[in-house]
Structures are given as structure tokens and as C-alpha cells.
Amino acid sequence: MIKKVNRIVISRTDSIGDVALTLPMAGILKTKFPDATIIFLGNTYTEPIINCSSEIEEVWCWADLQKMEEQAQIKWLKNQNIDVFIHVFPRREIARLAQKAKIKYRIGTAHRLFHLLTCNYRVNFSRKNSMLHESQLNIKLLAPFGITKLYPLKTLSKQAQFNRIPTLPQKFKSLLSTEKKNLIFHPKSKGSALEWGVDNFIALSKKLSKYELFFTGTEEEAASFREKLPDMAHIHDLSGKMSLEELIAFIHAADGLMAASTGPLHIAGLSNIKTIGLFTPRKPLHFGRWQPLGDHVLILEEKTISERNELLNIEVDFVQKAIERFLI
Fold first, then answer.
1. Degrees (nearest 5) of the Cα angle 173, 178, 181?
2. Which residue segment(s) compose the domain that 245 sits in?
3. Total domains in the fold of the chain
4. Is the dihedral of CA 241, 247, 251, 256 positive or negative?
5. Which mean pLDDT values do the consecutive 10-residue runs of the chain (328 residues) have?
6. How far is the C-alpha of 122 from the C-alpha of 211, rounded, in Å?
7. Are 182 and 144 members of one domain?
8. What is the CA radius of gyration of the chain?
9. Taking the CB of the first residue and of the last residue of the chain, which one, N or C, has fewer CB atoms within 10 A?
10. What is the CATH number of the domain that holds 289?
11. Max alpha carbon distance in the chain (Å)?
12. Measured in whole angstroms, how far is the alpha carbon of residue 63 from the centre of its chain?
């Protein structure tokens, strides 16, 4: 069992939601090793999410390391005096780099063949057929530290320490109502989830004039809904107008957010605003695996499983009533 460490790297170089659900690992490690430095290796575009956790003291971007020649990568990593390297998202090239840099403790799943040669601690668990939440599965990788308990989701939410929120620029702050609830609709998912459909979001938006509604998404995503948005005073289009830092700050300042299983849904959950997730019961996309962490989460699930590549089968009226009850 690993008992004494000073510098720990958590490596997860995939998407926003996956990274958000890995942040509790930093808090659990900090509780176990309060004097240790927690470092997160991620993608450049997820850095704003990582920076929100006060348990993480250094953020490394994989793209910066990729610019170096291999020997320069190895030398640089050796100079960081890392004790532990945890491969939460397995990548062959990163696993080889940690091994060549002779990091003392290299932890990864036993279900990757390349970890046989690159990791000296291989944890045997399967994500594919598990009923556990993604954040709980991540914590399985901490078994070499003697951390084997199953943490409740509420505990994991607090362990993320998602409290270093960027400042919201005044141009966006001024859009938020002080008299009505401010609700964000994030209709797209970049293909990471089964979606409810833009037309359903728009139909619902017409029925919710008691709220200020803000549609968000990337500029590319906006092409699928911007021209369809109703010209109504309570509906606002913020798609393609915010950086990720600004979106995080805006979500944190709003009253609620509704989306399928995508990055902004997890940001909302960790921000402890009213978070409404739209899910299918189909595995492995079901809410048991991917629901947002947080104290104010409502899951709306389709009753009959939709066909593959179709939209979530949830009635607009049902969603309207659920929102109106939840946002009281």
C-alpha cells in the first residue's frame, strides 16, 4: 500500500463532463495526504473546469507536452519530482511517458494491455457493465492507497471543492433577472449524449414565460437552433458568445440549467444550482452512471427506450410541469 507521497498527478485528457466527475478524486487524495500537491493533467479546453477545484494546485496541459520531443518530455517530467501518476483516462503515450520518466508509483486499470508494461499498480475493475456512477468508478483507482470505500454521490460532490469560480463579466451579469428565475437551456451535446431535440427545447421555451430563458452552446451547435428561436422577450440566445470561463460563471450565477448528459449539466450540478438532467434508461448512458453530482439535481427519464440515434422520448408538457415544481 502506498503510504507517503508528496506530488500526485491525476491524468484525464478527455471531455468536460468526464473531467468534472474526476475532480472528487483530488479532494479525497487531499484528505488522505493533506500536505501533498495535487496536479491535474488534462486538455487545454478543460483547463477552466480543472481550475475551479481548490484542491488542485497545478494544471498541466497535454498539448504543451506534446510539443516537446520525447526525450525533452521525459526530462521535464523527471524534473517535476512526481511520486504518483494516476491514469484515470488510459492513453498509451502518456502511460509510456510516466514509465520512462521512472515515476515510482504508476496506477492504472488492469483492463488495458499496455498497462502491463507501463503501470506497477493495476487495479482490476470494469466500467463497462458496472452499476456504479462514473465518479465512484474513478475512485476505484485509489485502492493502492488503501482507499476502498464506496463514497455516496453527495460526499463526492463536496470532495470536488468546485469553488474557485471565474468572475462573471458585467455584460452577462446584467442579463440576469432579479425578479424572475433564470434558467439555462443547453440543447446540444456534441454527440456525447442522447439528446432531447432542439424542437422540444423551443416548444418548451414558449410555455415558460414566467422565467428568463438562456440558450447556450457553441457557435457550431447554434447553427441547429439559432434561426428557430422564438422572438419573445423572455428568450435569450447566448450561444457562441461565451468562453468556457464565462459560461462557468454564468451557470454559477443562474437559478437552474437543463440539458442532456453533457459538460454544462455537470458544471451546473457542481455549482449547486437547480440541475435538470434528461436521460435514457439505456445502459451505459443511464443516469445511474452519468447523473450530475450536486445537492439540487432532478433527473427526467424517458419511460420507453428510444431507438438508437433517435431523440429522447419525453413529453414537453411533462418536462414543463417538472420544471415548475422544481424551480419553486
1. 95
2. 170-326
3. 2
4. positive
5. 94 97 98 98 98 99 98 98 98 98 98 95 90 97 97 98 98 98 96 91 98 97 92 97 98 99 98 98 92 98 77 96 96
6. 50
7. no
8. 21
9. C
10. 3.40.50.2000
11. 61
12. 19
